[in-house]
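Researcher: We're teaching a course module on how sequence relates to structure. For the next exercise, students receive a sequence and then see the predicted structure as tokens, so they can try to spot secondary structure elements on their own. Here is the exercise chain.
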Amino acid sequence: MNADDKFQQLWRSKKAAPAPDIKALLEKAASVKRAVKRKLILTYALLTATIVWACWIVARSHPKMVTTWIGVALAILAILLYIASSVGLIKQLYSKGQEVAPVQQYLQNMLQIREKQRRLQRGILNAYFILLFSGLALYMIEYTRYLPAGTTLVIYGAVAVWGLINWFYFRKKAIAKQEAAFGAVIGKLESVIADTEG
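Model: And here is the predicted structure for the students to work with:
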């Protein structure tokens, strides 16, 4: 028996992998979308509360320096930028009729959601962090200028460490978790489509 015959025999004896349950797969995809919706709604609520809190602090403390006002404005601008940029994603997540769409359309919808989420996580989140921490640094100038230099350095250092931990650890961990969830569902949807076409 030559190599070609062995290959043909092996090919014929190959067991076909069981097709994934499409209904269960679509339910998993809907579950991933619901998790993203919940996270976005919670994020909106927390960011709105942060804006109210920042305005309340400014109203109560009556800042004297212009850097404090600019800092608060930058922080609020960062929050509004994030909220405005995620409106397209929230609209896509709440679009009607996706639950009964054919698998190919559902896959396209999931790909669009993943792409919007990537843009939000990579581009907009970068601008958000830069604006937020620039605003925080400017805001703190008025309140740290009368403190000893060592104390001021400790305060700014603590804020910088907090920002770096958020940037390099929590942000990357959250992005990787969401990418894994979307990637698994999208990969299975693509395999179902390839199996039905092939």
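Model: If you want an answer key for the exercise: The chain has a mean pLDDT of 85. The helical segments are 3-13, 22-61, 66-85, 87-93, 103-144, 149-197.
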